[in-house]
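Lab notebook, bench 4. Still working through the backlog of constructs that have no structural model yet. Next entry is a single chain of 292 residues. Request: give me the structure tokens for it.
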Amino acid sequence: MKLLTLLALLFIPFAAHAQENDLEIVKVRDGIHMLISPNGGNVTASVGEEGTFIVDDNLEGRDQIITDAIKGLNGQDVKFILNTHYHFDHTGTNEAFGEKGAIIVAHDNVRERLSTRQFISFFKKEMPPLEKSGLPVVTFAQGLNLHYNGDDVQIIHLPNAHTDGDSAAFFKNQNVIVAGDVIFNGMYPFIDAEHGGSLKGLLAAQEALLKLADDNTAIIPGHGPLMNKADLQAYHDALATIAGNIKTAIMDGKTLEETLAAKPTAAYDEKMGGGFITPEVFVSFLHGHLKQ
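Model written out:
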């Protein structure tokens, strides 16, 4: 089976626009909650007297599910949204919330991608341009600060990591980092190299977040359960070790088939191999990516 066909089949459950209320709500800190769903990326909600600020907004058609969950927390409407990157499982309800007056914030490259047709060859997924209501109205090149619900939120651009427009949010007072898809906790990551992502940038992004974190920092990944600094360090080190194994194989002149047979991810497959990016797919991607 060709690699792209295999990836497309693997991605079907991840891309499904399920309508059932399948959210698990995890209280991270007072006023900060993590909304976990098996469909699409994690959503983070900061709720308080000033209203609701969410980081990412899941898949298209799930705005009412998210709204109902947030209403159950504080009864407030969503006023601000940060898109950590442009992918459809993190920006899918931009238009719905934008039509209700939410102000969308993102990196410059996210607005550029959301305003034009995108095609992710890795998953054979087309993203048509969003209507004006779904586009970020506040954009930044390096970062910005948001002072909201009693917290100072530092929004940081993480260049050429998962994509070319990644950002993370650091809630300084609450000591919470929302990382977006520079972290797929408990699974191998998808790196959108076609749209500016790179392994080097991904590892650098994780290192930048590790410098922000301390032992008490709560870290919310783009996919998977809540983490702490030690978890992120272990995740980063696993990816770096796997990359080193594959680089060595390439330098030794091994073909992709020989590299796959050597199982360079074997030490981590039990913990990280159950996601939609299988060990074989991850090794195949890195072998091609690192050869360039």
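Notes after review: The chain has a mean pLDDT of 92. The domain at 3-228 is CATH 3.60.15.10 (Metallo-beta-lactamase; Chain A). Flag for follow-up if needed.
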